[in-house]
Amino acid sequence: MSEQKGSATKTIYVQLLGEGTIVYRPTQGVLLDENVYQVLATPDYNKSDEDWEFLPGSVVYCDFDDQKRLIARKKLILDGPHLINLTFSHPLGQHRLRGVY
């Protein structure tokens, strides 16, 4: 069964900056589209205590790392209420690109 977009939450991991090594903060993300989540703050979130790569409210592209954690990789640019999409034809068929920038 697939998750319902806009209401399903999942644990995602956001990198903390300025830690001297790679560190991730687990938090919740709202599923907006395939591999696309809106970052939610943790209950004890304090922006002066931790420097998150993507702030709560950001819409991010996520994928799994080798430890099966869902990692926030890129902030997405929104065009109104939708992600930027591009569909084009190529001699080998039609291709669709999502706005992952």
Descriptive overview:
The protein is mainly beta and 101 residues long. It has a domain at 9-75. Helices cover 0% and strands 53% of the residues. It is built from no helices and 10 strands. The protein has a 6-stranded antiparallel sheet, with no helix packed on it. A hairpin with a 2-residue loop joins strand 2 and strand 3 (36-39).
Looking at this protein, list some descriptive labels:
10 strands; globular; six-stranded antiparallel β-sheet; mainly beta; 53% strand; 101 residues
Average pLDDT reading: 81
The count of DSSP E runs of length 2 or more, i.e. the number of strands, is: 10
SSE pattern:
EEEEEEEEEE
Share of helical residues: under 10%
SSE class = mainly beta
CA gyration radius, whole angstroms: 15 Å
Form type: globular
Largest beta sheet, briefly? Answer: 6 strands, antiparallel
| Unreliable stretches | 84-88
In which order are the strands of the major sheet placed? 4-1-2-3-5-6
Please report which band the strand proportion falls in: under 5%, 5-15%, 15-25%, 25-35%, 35-45% or over 45%.
over 45%
Q: Whole-Å distance between the termini?
A: 30 Å
Helix count, DSSP H or I runs of 4 or more residues: 0
